[in-house]
Specification:
The chain is α/β, with parallel strands linked by helices. The chain has two domains: about 5-130, 3-Layer(aba) Sandwich (Rossmann fold); about 130-225, Winged helix-like DNA-binding domain superfamily/Winged helix DNA-binding domain (Arc Repressor Mutant, subunit A, Orthogonal Bundle), CATH 1.10.10.10. The chain is built from eight helices and eleven strands. The chain has helices at about 15-25, 35-45, 65-70, 90-95, 110-130, 160-170, 175-180, 190-205, and strands at about 5-10, 30-35, 50-55, 80-85, 100-105, 130-135, 140, 145-150, 150-155, 215, 220-225. The strands form three sheets. The protein has a five-stranded parallel sheet with strand order 2-1-3-4-5, sandwiched between helices. It has a four-stranded antiparallel sheet with strand order 6-7-8-9, covered by helices on one side. Strand 1 (about 5-10), helix 1 and strand 2 form a beta-alpha-beta unit. The longest helix has 21 residues, at about 110-130. It is elongated. It starts with 5 loop residues before the first strand and ends with a strand.
Length: about 230
């Protein structure tokens, strides 16, 4: 049986979280909820979601801030924004930050379902276009950011997915450390090295003597595909 899409609902209003969780679950989706942007980040560690339903106005980091950070980090997960802000300028601001759709509160539940369905179908089409990069017993789907070893999923952090996307896009060619650092961040070369070492723990038989993800002295890192 095909696994149902997994949706992450992010809203600081507990009543709305519960309503959305119940409604979406009743309509066949797997649902996880988060009360803040920080909690959403924690939920995504080790779990692959198919779509985020995201409130804009939240204390601390807003939905706009979270979406902007996702896109700057090259995370292409579909985002459907929900907001009580219904003016044209508000919708434009939401879409400009990188959200895929924008729905004003209050909304018709059936319209929410239709929009979610449309985003998931569009995402599925894009993912089928993305090819699998293969190295040894591993295959990495660049669209889903999904790594498998002999068919079994290997859990990756968001940064590890970013690294593999960048490395597979330039397979066989060294990628500089600066290109692997997060855009707009002050991530150091040392921090990139630490992340690479953690990734090697997941894909190399002997991380100290890597076969697939190798260091190119003075250049950066290179991933060798089959």
């Amino acid at each position: 049986m095909t696994e149902q899409p997994h949706i992450l609902v992010v809203d600081d209003d507990r009543r709305i979280r519960q309503l959305l969780q119940s409604f979406l679950a009743d309509n066949g989706y797997r649902v996880t909820v988060a009360a803040s942007a920080q909690e959403a980040r924690e939920r995504r560690r080790g779990i692959t979601f198919d779509l985020i339903v995201l409130d804009i106005m939240m204390p601390g980091e807003s939905g706009l801030d979270l979406t902007r950070a996702l896109r700057e980090g090259r995370d292409e997960i579909p985002v459907l924004m929900l907001s009580a802000l219904a003016e044209t300028g508000d919708r434009i601001a939401g879409l400009t930050t990188g959200s895929d759709d924008y729905l004003s509160k209050p909304f018709e539940p059936q319209e929410l379902l239709l929009r979610i369905g449309n985003l998931l179908r569009r995402s599925a089409r894009l993912q089928t276009v993305a090819s699998d990069a293969r190295f040894g017993p591993y295959s990495f789907n660049t669209g889903r950011g999904e790594l498998k070893r002999d068919g079994d999923i290997v859990r990756l952090t968001s940064r590890e997915k970013d690294f593999l996307r960048a490395l597979t896009a330039s397979a066989g060619v060294p990628v500089p450390r600066t290109a692997l650092a997060q855009p707009g961040s002050e991530e150091s070369a040392r921090s990139v090295d630490v992340q690479i070492n953690r990734l090697r723990q997941k894909i190399e038989i002997d991380p100290s003597n890597p076969i697939y993800l190798q260091t190119v002295r003075g250049s950066g890192y290179v991933l060798h595909l089959d």
